[in-house]
Amino acid sequence: MYIYQKSDWPQFTWNAETISAQLGEVRYRQGRILGLMQGLGFQLQEEAVLKTLTLDVIKSSEIEGEVLNPEQVRSSIARRLGIDIAGAVPAERDVEGIVEMMLDATQRYHEPLSEDRLFGWHAALFPTGRSGMYKIKTADWRADAIQVTSGSMGKEIVHFEAPSAEKVPSEMTVFLMWFDQNQEIDPVLKAALAHLWFVTIHPFEDGNGRIARAITDMQLARADQSRQRFYSMSAQIQAERNKYYDILELTQNGDLDITEWLAWFLDCLLRSMEQTDGTIAKTLKRAQFWETHRKISFNSRQERILQLLLDDFFGKLNVSKYAKITKVSTDTALRDLQDLMSKAIIESEGSGRSTSYKLLAI
Questions:
Q1: Are residues 122 and 11 in the same domain?
Q2: pTM of the model as a whole
Q3: Are 261 and 20 in contact (CB under 8 A)?
């Protein structure tokens, strides 16, 4: 018997004492993060928000096995938020759709969550009316049964079966009424409940996970009372996806005491907030770098590479990587790198074909 088949569904219960310490730590970290970010100044806040939202969109899609182009995601978000960035690129329809949904959820967090709004999100996720090769019902509740399975074709393991399609409209009516009501429940816990409740109903033919995470972000924005997102729950869920699926299955196959689910959610949220400390440190490092070298002239290719080196550059930078990233010849790449060395911005390591380059310490 699944959780929604219990006679007292959806009257969730939990042991407040068990999770009180975790909830208190989450609330403390929320205040600390918002306070630190307010002290960074407007431009650096914009940079941190852009990085967080980009990560959120990318990781939410990765959980579903969909890999998005990071530059397209970043450019789409920046354009919609009115943030000027170097090297902006046009985004494909699927990228635009999920960005549109995520920004609608977080930038308009104070507005009611309605059936029509959810249908708009769903339509944005599937602009062609297809999920991969398959045509799906978009911007409407599902009309068929849904099972969450794993394993190869013919050997599937059923982890969960959602409520029947005919129950979805009434289930969603109750959910939406609850979501926009003022209850005596901490808004962070409400985010955890909303996530669990929505994925349990599983109202759409596809895209339920991404929409559940958008609803979670929307409620966390309500908890922060801020459009600015400085931590990414989706990124942390992606990092812990196996545990996420395990606790979700355990909860959906259990009773209405969801203390374990709330405890996991709060711990996951705390770990996502811990990552923000790294984001703040990188943001400050970049700001210090550009302030120190504000009188030095760089071309657009060099600026792009320096931004990557100041952020999350993978591996070592060499001439061929520089040429590939900036789409120039190796001769041009070498000249750019030699110019940066002459300006005491980078230094070389190794020799010959094994030569690589790194930033000099600020």
A1: yes
A2: 0.83
A3: no
